[in-house]
Amino acid sequence: MAINFMTLTRHIYEGEKKHPGATGELSALLHELSLAAKVISLEVNKAGLADIIGFTGDNNVHGEQVKKLDMFSHDMLFKAMDHGGHLCAMASEEEEDIIHIPDHHKKGKYVLLFDPLDGSSNIDANVSIGTIFSIYKRITPNDGSPGTLEDCLQPGIKQVAAGYIVYGSSTIFVYTAGDGVFGFTLDPAFGEFLLSHDNIKIPEKAWIYSINEGNYKYWKPGLKKYIKYIQDADNRGRRPYSSRYIGSMVADIHRNMLYGGIFIYPADIRSPNGKLRLMYECNPMAFIIEQAGGRAIDGSKRIMEIQPSDLHQRVPIYIGSKEAVDKVEQFLKEDLEQ
Ligand code: AHM
Ligand code: MG
H or E segment at 132? Predict the structure, then answer.
């Protein structure tokens, strides 16, 4: 049996060699993130055994109940990333304000934004969940000073790297540094992430749609028509699409990226900005999907061109295979005109 010994760490450092001016700091960051991912993966896998499941009783900044594993993942990422000297600030979906690097640690030129454990309502049911991250270069001078909110509030097009880890039937680490998308599956025996998905490209055509159809009543007419359109048969056998909805954005988008599909969390009459967060969920997933050849829009605009005004702002998202996003965009024009 041929064994592919392209580990995530080796891949990151080989990527760095293609950029002669690189200082190695981004590589170090990605490597540190992969260490945090291994620890979170271990803990997620133990969740069914240990007495760690259940609510902490606290509410997060969105007023939702936080489970222990969310906070564990948040703390683990902070601890893994605070002392490398490459970051000047962090921000997490689980914390209201930006997170400063402790005074006694060096401040670097990058900022890290993350959703420590996305899809957390699925934890108790043993269903796939994930971590999402996004890395930007600071805007303020790299002079050892702490990072600011301004450093964190950059549009997605400024991301230098983004990735996600799905804790599913196996654990997979998927990242882009702007030069394609690569997936590494954790080998539990070696404790290493090994290259399993080289230069991922999302099929241009979608076969799958992923949306919470329980909200149908609240959708606008254009979206209702689009969903009816993809449920209809055409004479070329390209429709109807199959419906798949896990309720964990990372897992839904990961599957759609491999098979071809569209994931939607729309604006509706109850939630004009949808549910998902621009900085922690939508921008990093948009960067990855675009790097894989797909598209991500908020209905009319490219997600990555939205100028953020708030760390926790929400945006509607339509993301996936190019042909499908082009199509939904046409249907949504009707809703914009209303
Ligand atoms: P979370 O950050 O609180 O886990 O919520 C985000 C999750 C996404 O992973 C998923 O796509 C969505 O919420 C599902 O929401 P809904 O239950 O409304 O369909
Ligand atoms: Mg989330």
Answer: strand 129-137
**What atom in ligand 1 is closest to the CA of residue 248?**
9
Q: What domains lie within the chain, and their CATH numbers?
A: 8-197 (3.30.540.10), 208-337 (3.40.190.80)
Closest alpha carbon to 178 in 298, 19, 5 = 19
> Could you tell me the pTM of the whole model?
0.94
Q: Please report, for residues 43, 55, 124, 125, 178, the alpha-carbon distance to residue 51 in angstroms, rounded to integers and kept in the order given.
A: 11, 11, 12, 15, 40
Distance between CA atoms of 81 and 195, rounded to whole angstroms? 23
Q: Which of 249, 270, 273 to mutate to test the pocket of ligand 1 (most atoms within 8 A of CB)?
A: 249
- Return per-residue pLDDT of the chain as tens, 338 residues: 555 589 999 999 898 888 878 889 999 999 999 999 999 999 888 766 555 444 455 666 776 655 578 888 999 999 999 999 999 999 999 999 999 999 999 999 999 999 999 997 888 788 999 999 999 999 999 999 999 999 999 999 999 999 999 999 999 999 999 999 999 999 999 899 999 999 999 999 999 999 999 999 999 999 999 999 999 999 888 999 999 999 999 999 999 999 999 999 999 999 999 999 999 999 999 999 999 999 999 999 999 999 999 999 999 999 999 999 999 999 999 888 76
Closest residue CA from atom 12 of ligand 1 = 247
- Give the nearest ligand 1 atom to 280 CA: 2
